[in-house]
Amino acid sequence: MTDFTLLSRKSFFDFLWSSRHPLVRNSKRYFPMQPSSLPPLRIATVPFYNAWPLTRFLSETLPEATLSGWYPSRMRPGLLGGEIDLALLPVAELPRIPGASLLGNACIGCLGPVESVLLASRVPVSKIRRIALDVASRSSITLSKVMLHEFYGLEPEIVPLELDESLNEVAADALVVIGDRALAFEPADCWEYRFDLGQWWLEKTGLPFVFAAWIGQPFADPERQVETVRGLETARDRGIAAIEQIVAEREEQAARNATPLLVGRSKLIDYLSRSIQYRIDEEKRKGLELFLKLAAKHL
Questions:
Q1: Would you list the DSSP string of 147-173?
Q2: Using CA atoms, how far apart are residues 51 and 137, in angstroms rounded to an integer?
Q3: Would you call 228 helix, strand, or coil by DSSP?
Q4: CA–CA distance, 160 with 131 (Å, rounded to integer)
Q5: C-alpha neighbours within 13 Å on the C-beta side of residue 113
Q6: Residues 283, 105: contact at Cβ < 8 Å?
Q7: Is 85:75 a contact under the CB 8 Å cutoff?
Q8: What is the C-alpha separation between 45 and 34, in angstroms, rounded?
Q9: Mean pLDDT by 10 residues, the chain (299 residues)
Q10: How far is CA 20 from CA 24, 55, 92, 287, in A?
Q11: Is the four-CA dihedral 134, 138, 143, 149 of positive or negative sign?
């Protein structure tokens, strides 16, 4: 396990993205999977629509892994407690898990409007004194704090926005809602000021944003690590190419279970195809580094 406190000659970000670090190097060499006596890899995924293209084909690209659905706020304790090996985790959790790093370049990110992370306010931003933040994702909570503090000098009182709370009846100047219910949110007229946090970040920094990525501890078996990266990225590539198929499958499943999706097929396809980006490139790396640097003040 790596202790980041010992990295006196390299910055955290240089270390994180170093090509020598096994969790993030972009190896072109893949080894054939051999029968193994190792226990199954335990992968935690999230229940949100935007994860579908990353997770739909994991059972095929990593057939020996066990997949389970977790709420994002539970994933860090799960990794620290050894319940799971890697997770599609909010990136704001990364500095809070000693030794952990990114595994591959698959992510949930955006360049501009993301549609599923929204700030709505009854008052101008400069007058926000009390804000309700969705408890689902630390990245979105931290991004809200960063935007308000760094660009407006604000540190409003923060209250939790619970999952079963009626959004239009929240007792706060502003709220931040994320994920599937943000897509379906129809703000009442009282929420006069509305911001898409992906677009807001782009306007203030000129950079894309990464909300979540595959995060885990270093593997003891280098071959297994390479195969896992390959499986995660191949699943991502196949998912991107099959978004319409995935949405249709999910609609059919929801109908069978009598639990209709919160938004319609065309909106979901547009959201997954246009609003969400799934690969960490150089610009997203810069955006992630800046976010983690600013977020360190608020963790």
A1: HHHHHH----EEEEE-TTS-GGG-SSS
A2: 13
A3: helix
A4: 8
A5: 9
A6: no
A7: no
A8: 25
A9: 36 40 39 58 93 97 94 88 94 92 97 96 96 82 92 93 84 92 90 96 97 93 94 98 98 93 95 98 98 88
A10: 8, 27, 23, 21
A11: positive
- Both tokens of 232, joined, read 């995660």
DSSP one-letter code for 276:
-
Phi first, then psi: give them for residue 43, nearest 5 degrees. Answer: -115, 130
In whole angstroms, what is the distance from residue 8 CA to residue 177 CA? 39
Give the number of residues written for the chain: 299
Q: Which two tokens stand for residue 93?
A: 């959790």
Q: How many Å apart are CA 225 and CA 220, to the nearest integer?
A: 8
Q: What is the DSSP string of 54-102?
A: HHTTHHHHSTTSEEEE--HHHHHHHHHTTS-SEEEEEGGGGGGSTT-EE
Residues ≥6 apart with Cβ < 8 Å to 148:
125, 128, 131, 154, 155, 156
Is there a contact between 42 and 68 (Cβ–Cβ < 8 Å)? yes
243-256 and 222-241 helices, crossing angle to 10°: 80
Please, what's the largest Cα pairwise distance for the chain?
Answer: 61
Give me the sheet containing 193-196, strands edge to edge. Answer: 157-161, 130-134, 174-178, 117-121, 193-196
The pLDDT tens digits of the residues spanning 274-298 come to 999 999 999 999 999 999 999 998 7
